[in-house]
Amino acid sequence: MSTKNCSSTMDFNNAKATILYEVNQKSLARYKALMEMHAVNNDFLYSKLLHINSNSAGLTKNELFDALNNEGFSNSDIRGLSDAEYFILLDALEMQQLNENGARLQEKVSLASTKEKASVDVYTAFLDGARAKRAAKNAFKNGFKQITAGDNALNTPTRIGVVTASSRDPFEAVDFYVGVFQQPNVEVVWLPISPAFQKAAFIESMGGNGCEQLETFRAQNHLYDKARLYPQRTDMQRQWCEDSSVAINTLSNLDGIFFNGGDQSKTLAALSTPTGQPTPFLNTLRSMWRNDQIIVGGTSAGTAVQAGGYANGRPVPMLTSGSSKGVLSSGVFSVPPVSERCEDEGCEQVLVDNAVTVNPTGGLGLFNFGLLDTHFSERDREVRLIAATAQSLQQFGFGVDETTALVVDMHNNQHNNQHGADFTVVGKSGVFIVDLGQGRVEELRNGAAASRVVAGSASYVPTGAKGTIVGEKLTIDLTATKEQKSAQHKRKNEDGVWREQSMRLCRDGIDAAWELEGTQHVLKKSADSAVLRSHYCGYSNVPFLVYEPQ
Description:
This protein starts with about 25 loop residues before the first helix and ends with a strand. The strands form five sheets. Strands 10, 11, 14, 15, 18, 19, 20 and 21 form an eight-stranded mixed beta sheet that branches. It has a four-stranded parallel beta sheet with strand order 2-1-3-4. It contains 20 helices and 21 strands. With about 550 residues, it is α+β, with helices and mostly antiparallel strands.
């Protein structure tokens, strides 16, 4: 999602490259009106905006904030804004970007032009899975007769639906996620569901006039003035709201559905009623998935939201926020996550800094083998996953690295009628798996302070490797990947510390111990462990210990 990842032949002319902002009489009038309607007027900020005059080319967000700084409205003042004030500022001042014909400029996407081959591998794996679903449906419609080149069934396009509900602004995110799946004989459709849409649709189902209040419900989710920028998309959302059959009919014709990144709690809210029950849309999706009619994929939040259901007789939680720092002593909180602004710009914390939060009842319930986490090795999220897995009394937790996918096949795996799945890893790096089946969790106390010691088994499954889960048994086949010399490990500056330290298992054949941000880590091979000298050191069933010294 950056021009640095594109080949030099990619042409970005006449395309939207970034969101731009304007400060003029019209945008200030919009700002004033929205503030009066949805927040407490901030006269101090307004007085500073009056002294800023953007040119016709518009300002980037950084340029807008720099201009405010120059007028005496500091970054601390910006961080001090409430979510309503902050997002009204951005949405009211956002500039329409039009081409010479007056049409909206769109973000340009070309999967074929990426320099990162692993990205192509990930998206190709998803599309191949969707094509397989379409082929099976076509064969069924054709009575399983041999399909010839002239048959219409053969030419029925693969249908991909994209859901952008994880974004605060689901309308702005559409261009990328629709564009990345554009392929010959692939039909891509945006599904305009969101938390605001779901609330409106629920009220409609109860006999109210929810669809007329969509703009109000968007504002309750800190999304403002979008009909001005995306009139066709907001109209489409209202049409779906007014006819409840459209969403189900569209979903029923899909071969794949893909959830975007952002905030997984927003996607869960988009597929749940305000009372917390699954919507007809979610029930239909679950039914299609169980019947092997659709492949489900997602990036970042779109991965995390797939966790849920039950394992070990307990709900599988959905991870929502936080970091590994201090999690063993501070714990894991079953509360809503803090504002999305906190990670990038800071905000008033309602919990301890970087607190790990989960939704204890889980997400969509499509993946019930354990917790799911993303941006994994790169952000040193191993201890946060270990702590959340331990506190929820689950056996497994799965952490997927960036530009990497965990491909799970739930079918043809009913070994002795036990719950099971096969999985493979595709893409750039690997998937970390924590197994606490034979692990232990102990609590250490020092006065009022408490900390946990967690012991268990860790595996890192590199791209190309595969495995199986049957009941409580995890089996990993590292030999399925091509062996590479550790000298080819060249991206140290992008590695997390755990991944870098674990290289000792392969590179030097020794155990690893290190300290990071107050937490001690130990990896110590046993007779049951296996290692593979791969691009990123692959290993399975390696005992670990993590603790915070008293």
